[in-house]
Automatic annotation (TrEMBL):
Highest taxon of the lineage: Bacteria
Transmembrane segments: none
GO cellular component: cell outer membrane
TonB-dependent receptor plug domain: residues covered: 221-345
Organism listed in the record: Chitinophaga parva
Protein name (database record): SusC/RagA family TonB-linked outer membrane protein
């Protein structure tokens, strides 16, 4: 009855509102509203807008207060999905409201701006025009904002990019800027032609929309879990070749680590810590609703010892095409993605058309970044090659170690490139240093990116070319991407949309890692070697047969490695989807979608004759394909019951099918030099490999939301997966989630000048997870090469399979609080989570008598707990705008349990360091050798040496570190003044440890300044006799020697530097383990935005020029030249964090970016 009464009153009010217009125009009322109009012919405006959003796939941005208790004629509702702007605008006008077109399918409902003009016939002198950009407190453009000249009353509206131009009378003119959802503000025009402004979110009427799981758009205040959304400009201003690297330091709870400084390197991505006992668990990447493969393509040692990194396929996503990125962090956020979302989800939404504007827009962007290798270890340049400073043996200086005579003293010695006399004897040459021998090898890298995009009403076509030259000679990477987004209304109830992306990656040579790589060779060259002399890497007259090397037979020439030991690849990838949305009724919609992710990759490695690991050359050619197809549908019903209650429910299903093939052929030796073909492989050295993997998951799911008075929201989800990788009796697993979001300021009426908005949220979820295919039964494979005419067979692996596997179970709960103060000038979002992963599918070691090395079981439980805090604010909001944002992440994990009969086990090792898993200890511990100590007495804890005064290792491996950080912090600052915008990002990681094999190797062979002490008398060396020669490089290790009777004496034994540093560092992993703390200036951009007046008559809508940079500054607790961020060892089996082996040096990048819109 109350609803009917409201409608009747509103009907009368609407007619009264129209009366002046009728009188003025002479238009009969019957022409405006039908004479038969009754309360049944009107509909609540809020309900009407909701129906239009559902049926026509548009979004309205409005304040609840603006639309409350307002009604419009029901005839204004569109038929089917054919939205008519004119009809709705006419219906809103009598209510004092206007419909404002934003970007894409977004609109704003705003009050009509009243002109403040005392005499409309009076002419006003226009002093000049003012242009600018209106942005939100998140730094994103605000389309549809109204800028009003308070003197003339004239108004303009910002375009889709937040830009405006308005006439002003003089410098004292006051402009008012307001937009639905933001706090209005006044600006003084001033004398400049450029005036930017930032609007604070009106948090009291928060109605912004975010993209959640399955691409569902929801009101931000209804979301009951932690998620972070970034505008595309956050990753495409200072672009990284891999879009994942562009997220580093910007999202609380998200950790990004690249395995090297190479732009095409693989990355490790983790959300809320690692929770798996069986390797890396990556989040699911979803592009435009379609899951895509982001698994690192594998570090491989195709021929020989060096390892090649082919990168990560997530880098195929072009940053220039990204509109927004949403990171779903908790189990409740990702539950609808099933087992694949167990480790979080990263949703990428790409750009679409130009929002319905007439004609075509053309965007052109170009950027150039230059990479410079820097922060090398502090190599010593005072002593050259050799085994002893005071050596008598003249051939001593031909050693690869750096314990030889002092350099630059006017002496001559035999060395690596000594000429020979007429009798064939080596001739001594000047013994001088080459301090730039390492830097001379590396070149300035470059990355050029060009993007052209054409935007139409309902389509966008984009092409991007990226060309990279690496800092290592003869390394490169080229990528071409083509992206098409299109949509069309087939009729009033059916809408079809599609996104298709093609990417081609090509490289003639990728960088290599570990022993034998060019980096390992250059780093270990003695100071008397001139790198430039190695550029001609073939011995004269033996081109193609014998390299010219600084250590022939033991070490490759680094330029020979770069040009003759190449590792090329090419990857072609296509991703895309077709989606159909059908309005079955005004309340019931159906979405159907099918998506594809397919790529094929070919790899080719060549090894020339005389390579250290392949004396007679070698060849490898391999290929792999990956295909994943997802087909899903979602049926959704939405209903507003009354002014208090509303609900929506959805049900859907998904079919996922994947197929992977791997083939390769290799030849360990060649017959004819330089002919790279498998048919040229030497007999008995050819190996073949072929693998096929298939997997399917069928899923059904449902979700529902119940809202009360638009401030309390309860969301429930449920999903059941059926996985082909699990046994039939255990292949079905069910997991639910529940979340509750309550806007406290609305419910408790807590609004004040200080506290503008407060939302509390809580959620719980349980998710299942399966395993890789073919883990249920052991199988056999043919071995290669054959034994004559006999095919050899063996077991596929040494792990005993398990046909009784069950799914892993991840349970999590989360509590969160979203607070905003002073009309959004200060924001605080905090979350605490507690996640437990049990029934882990893992390999448990077994005794060798079984014939296996391990068995696959369900065992183990890991718990992750942590805090995520995001603090934002706008300290200054005048002509100078300063935005600051800080995010903080703290995660703690623990191995709660393994199996009763297995309290610990060895998961793997790298460079002598062991990764042991122990119940009651954090995941990420690594173990190594350390030194023995005096067990008791007055010298207890002091180092215990052997009887000759040398360090002793402990018998057992002890814990020396953990690679997980104590906490991580990202700090973003944005300063905007007139035409200029300065943005900086600081990435700070605190705590954790890493073991550096590089540090251990360099010090044990005397290659760095740390090893100068004791080299000669000038460096504190002691005079002594080694039994043959008098020397001045004596050293005494600090420690005690056991007298054998329970007492200990201070060591006085003298030894040489090589033995001293070799004992001290080479044997002890603990002495080569360092803090992983670092602080990096990750990004800097300084952008100048040209105004309309500056552009003049140029046929250009917008023009910007920016200085951009990455990693301009870096500080590490470990010291210069040892980067904890890349503290990962790349092996043929994958990537192991916490241990640094030979990799590329740290780089800093700087360049320019130009953006033009026509």
């Amino acid at each position: 009855m109350q609803i009917k009464m409201n409608r009747a009153l509103v009907l009368a009010g609407m007619l009264l509102l129209e009366l002046p217009r009728v009188q003025a125009t002479g238009t009969p009322a019957s022409r405006l509203y039908a004479s038969s109009l009754t309360y049944n012919d009107v509909i609540a405006l809020s309900e009407a807008l909701e129906k239009i959003q559902q049926s026509c796939h548009v979004n309205f941005n409005y304040s609840n207060a603006v639309v409350a208790n307002k009604f419009i004629p029901a005839a204004a509702l569109p038929e089917g999905n054919n939205f008519n702007e004119a009809n709705l605008s006419s219906a809103l006008k009598p209510l004092g409201l206007a419909l404002v077109k934003l970007a894409g399918s977004d609109y704003a409902i705003r009050p009509v701006v009243k002109m403040n003009v005392t005499n409309p016939n009076e002419y006003t002198f226009v002093d000049h025009k003012v242009s600018g950009i209106i942005t939100s407190d998140k730094g994103e453009p605000v389309p549809g904002a109204v800028i009003t000249n308070k003197t003339t009353g004239k108004s303009v509206i910002t375009d889709a990019e937040g830009r405006y131009t308005i006439d002003v009378d003089n410098a004292e003119t006051v402009l008012t800027v307001h937009c639905i959802g933001f706090v209005a503000r006044d600006l003084k025009a001033g004398t400049s032609s450029m005036l930017n402004a930032q609007l604070m979110t009106d948090v009291r009427n928060l109605s912004s929309v975010v993209v959640t799981a399955l691409g569902i758009k929801r009101s931000e205040k209804s979301v009951g879990y932690a998620m972070t959304t970034l505008d595309g400009s956050k990753v495409n201003t200072v672009k990284d070749v891999n879009v994942a690297n562009g997220l580093s330091g910007k999202v609380a709870g998200l950790e990004i680590r690249s395995v090297s400084s190479d732009p095409g390197a693989a990355v490790m991505v983790t959300i809320r810590g690692n929770s798996s006992l069986n390797g890396e668990k990556r989040p699911l990447f979803v592009v435009d609703g379609v899951p895509i493969n982001s698994t690192n393509l594998g570090a491989k040692a195709p021929v020989g010892q060096v390892v090649v990194d082919y990168g990560s396929p997530i880098s195929d996503v072009n940053p220039d095409d990204i509109a927004s990125i949403s990171v779903l962090k908790g189990g409740a956020a990702a539950a609808l993605y099933g087992s694949r979302g167990a480790n979080g989800v990263i949703l990428i939404t790409t750009k679409s058309g130009n929002g319905g504007k007439k004609g075509l827009d053309v965007d052109v962007n170009f950027s150039a970044l230059y990479d410079q290798a820097w922060q090398f270890p502090e190599f010593q340049n005072e002593f050259g090659a050799g085994d002893a400073t005071d050596a008598v043996d003249p051939t001593n200086t031909l050693s690869t170690a750096s314990w030889g005579p002092r350099l630059d003293q006017g002496t001559k010695h035999l060395q690596w490139n000594s000429p020979t006399d007429k009798d064939g004897n080596l001739v001594a040459t000047d013994w001088i240093s080459y301090p730039n021998r390492v830097k001379d090898y590396f070149q300035t890298g470059s990355t050029y990116t060009s993007n052209v995009a054409v935007n139409g009403k309902d389509f966008r076509l984009s092409y991007t070319n990226m060309s990279n030259k690496g800092i290592t000679p003869n390394t490169d990477l080229t990528r071409n991407t083509l992206n098409l987004a299109a949509s069309r209304d087939l009729n009033k109830n059916i809408r079809v949309s599609s996104n298709i992306a093609y990417a081609n990656n090509h490289s003639n040579n990728r960088p290599t890692f570990n022993r034998g790589s060019a980096e390992s060779i250059v780093y270990t060259m003695p100071a008397n070697i001139n790198t430039k002399l190695l550029k001609n890497y073939w011995q004269p007259g033996l081109e193609g047969l014998q390299q010219f090397s600084q250590d022939l037979g033991s070490t490759d020439n680094p330029y020979f490695v770069a040009h003759e030991l190449t590792n090329g690849y090419e990857r072609n990838r296509i991703t895309g989807d077709v989606q159909v949305n059908i309005n079955l009724t005004q309340d019931l919609t159906l979405m159907g979608r099918t998506g594809l992710d397919y790529y094929n990759q070919t790899e080719e490695s060549k090894r020339a004759f005389s390579a250290v690991q392949n004396k007679l050359g070698g060849y490898y050619i391999g290929g792999s394909t990956f295909m994943e197809q997802n087909t899903d549908f979602l049926l959704t019903y939405k209903k507003t019951l009354n002014s208090d209650w509303a609900f929506n429910v959805s049900a859907g299903a998904n079919h996922m099918n994947t197929k992977t093939t791997v083939t390769s052929q290799s030849a360990g030796s060649l017959v004819v030099p330089g002919l790279y073909n498998i048919s040229n492989g030497a007999a008995g050295t050819i190996a073949n490999l072929s693998k096929l993997y298939k997997k399917q998951i069928n899923s059904i799911y449902g979700m529902g939301e119940l809202s009360f008075r638009n401030y309390a929201f309860l969301n429930l989800t449920a999903r059941n997966d059926y996985s082909s990788s699990l046994p039939i009796e255990n292949d079905s697993y069910f997991y639910p989630s529940a979340s509750l979001s309550v806007v406290l300021t609305d419910m408790l009426h807590l609004h004040s000048n200080v506290l503008s908005f407060a939302k509390a949220r809580v959620n719980w979820s349980r998710i299942g997870d399966d395993t890789d295919p073919y883990q249920l039964n052991n199988s056999y494979v043919f071995m290669s090469p054959d034994w004559g005419n006999v095919k050899l067979g063996n077991m596929n692996n040494t792990v005993l399979s398990n046909h009784n596997l069950k799914p892993e179970i991840l349970s999590s709960k989360e509590y969160g609080l979203d607070l905003r103060f002073f009309d959004g000038r200060i924001t605080l979002d905090a979350a605490y989570y507690d996640a437990d992963r049990r029934n882990q599918i893992m390999n448990i070691p077994v005794t060798g008598t079984t014939g296996y090395s391990a068995m696959l079981v369900n065992a183990g439980e890991i718990r992750n707990r942590g805090w995520e805090i995001s603090l934002g604010g706008t300290p200054v909001n005048k002509q100078l705008i300063w935005d600051a944002h800080v995010n903080f992440t703290r995660n703690r994990n623990m191995v709660v349990a393994l199996r009763d009969d297995v309290p610990s086990y060895l998961r793997g090792s790298a460079e002598g360091v062991q990764y042991q898993i122990k119940a009651g200890r954090p995941l990420g511990d690594f173990y190594g050798r350390t030194w023995t100590t005096v067990p008791d007495g007055p010298y207890k804890g002091k180092e215990l040496l052997d009887n000759t005064g040398h360090s002793q290792q402990t018998n057992d491996f002890v814990r020396v570190g953990n690679y997980n950080a104590d906490y991580m912090v990202g700090i973003t600052n944005t300063f905007t003044y007139k035409h200029f915008t300065l943005n900086t990002l600081i990435d700070w990681r605190q705590g954790g440890q890493f073991f550096s094999y590089v540090y251990m190797n360099l010090l044990s062979d005397g290659r760095t300044t740390n090893t100068l002490k004791g080299r000669d008398a000038a460096h504190g060396g002691l005079a002594w006799n080694d039994g043959t020669n008098d020397r001045h490089d004596g050293m005494i290790e600090d420690g005690y020697i056991d007298n054998g009777d329970g007492t200990y004496v201070k060591n006085t034994n003298i030894t040489d530097p090589e033995s001293y540093y070799g004992d001290y560092y080479w044997k002890m992993h603990a002495r080569n383990t360092f803090s992983a703390t670092y602080v990096k200036l990750r990004e800097v951009s300084l952008t100048y935005q040209f105004s309309k007046s500056q552009l003049g008559r140029l046929p250009v809508n917008n023009l910007s020029l920016a200085f951009i940079a990455r990693n301009l500054f870096s500080w590490t607790a470990a010291g210069k030249g040892y980067d904890p961020e890349t503290s990962m060892t790349i092996t043929n089996g994958g990537i192991t964090p916490g241990t640094t082996s030979w990799t590329l040096p740290y780089t800093r990048s700087y360049g320019v970016k130009l953006g033009v819109n026509f």
